């Protein structure tokens, strides 16, 4: 049998007042379970203050959800998955030779996300330009490095500014290579997208690698690839990727929010 004080206190926290929707499952139980311990007037006031905060937060979140009209999320995404989305999208844009400036924005968005993640998680990565440049020169280098990225993102600072366009294709290759290496380090996962990009860059730009491969092999690859122009190399590798089932499955997974998607063709 509940006391009158308990009944009065439960009634004072009736969530049905004001026409709001019922709170999350278990909230009513929380009210009753707590108020049973709060028979005294002073204790009841103290518990009432705590419960008002709890219930107020629950109902406030419900009101916000009702006001913006959003449905519950279909799924949740963490930061590593967000990085993978940007990384894979930039790799596909690279191979299918999409607009280099749009590709640049995706690459640098991924770069910034990785940089913030490793900083907050206190993770050491080997591919970090901050470890290669003296501290007094880092700001100047950073401004040069993000010059194109900032130009493509902002128009409020200097709307009449003009960008000096240099070899953006080579810049994209190097920065994408850094993203691939850093993602593998922080996730401990090498995706098929990353693996295929690494293989292509080794053939396309063998001079970038310091590896265990004998120098004569690197020189042979360089000589052989000089026989082909850029268009031929990219077209040939796209055919390999289009036939790569693991690459296609990864792409379908990346695009799952679109529903079923057609295969990527060369």
What's the short version?
It is built from twelve helices and no strands.
- Total number of distinct structural domains: 2
Query: What is the succession of H and E elements?
Result: HHHHHHHHHHHH
The number of distinct helices, counting runs of at least 4 residues, comes to 12
- What is the β-strand count? 0
Key terms for this structure?
266 residues; mainly alpha; 2 domains
List the helices and strands and how they pair.
Elements lengths: L3 H9 L14 H9 L5 H28 L10 H17 L4 H22 L13 H11 L1 H7 L14 H20 L4 H13 L10 H11 L4 H13 L2 H10 L12
Helix pairs in contact: 2-3, 4-5, 4-8, 5-7, 5-8, 8-9
Q: What report would you give on this structure?
A:
With 266 residues, this protein is mainly alpha-helical. The chain folds into two domains: 4-68; 79-258, no CATH class. Helices cover 64% and strands 0% of the residues. It has helices spanning 4-12, 27-35, 41-68, 79-95, 100-121, 135-145, 147-153, 168-187, 192-204, 215-225, 230-242, 245-254. Helix 4 runs antiparallel to helix 8, helix 5 runs parallel beside helix 8 and helix 8 packs across helix 9 (192-204). It is globular.
């Amino acid at each position: 049998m509940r006391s009158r004080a308990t009944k009065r206190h439960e009634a004072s926290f009736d969530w049905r007042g004001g026409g709001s929707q019922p709170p999350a499952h278990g909230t009513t139980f929380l009210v009753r379970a707590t108020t049973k311990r709060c028979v005294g007037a002073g204790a009841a006031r103290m518990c009432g203050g705590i419960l008002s905060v709890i219930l107020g937060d629950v109902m406030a979140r419900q009101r916000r959800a009702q006001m913006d009209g959003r449905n519950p999320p279909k799924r949740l995404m963490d930061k590593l998955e967000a990085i993978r989305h940007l990384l894979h999208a930039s790799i596909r844009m690279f191979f299918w030779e999409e607009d280099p400036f749009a590709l640049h924005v995706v690459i640098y968005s991924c770069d910034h996300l990785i940089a913030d993640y490793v900083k907050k998680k206190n993770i050491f990565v080997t591919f970090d330009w901050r470890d290669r440049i003296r501290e007094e020169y880092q700001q100047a280098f950073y401004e040069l490095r993000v010059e194109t990225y900032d130009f493509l993102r902002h128009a409020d600072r200097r709307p009449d500014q003009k960008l000096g366009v240099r070899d953006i294709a080579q810049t994209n290759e190097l920065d994408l290579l850094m993203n691939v290496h850093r993602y593998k380090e922080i996730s401990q996962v090498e995706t098929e997208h990353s693996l295929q990009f690494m293989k292509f860059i080794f053939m396309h730009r063998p001079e970038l690698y310091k590896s265990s491969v004998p120098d004569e092999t690197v020189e042979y690859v360089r000589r052989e690839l000089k026989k082909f122009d850029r268009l031929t190399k990219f077209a040939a590798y796209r055919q390999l990727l289009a036939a790569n089932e693991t690459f296609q499955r990864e792409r379908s997974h990346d695009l799952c929010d679109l529903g079923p998607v057609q295969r990527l063709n060369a």
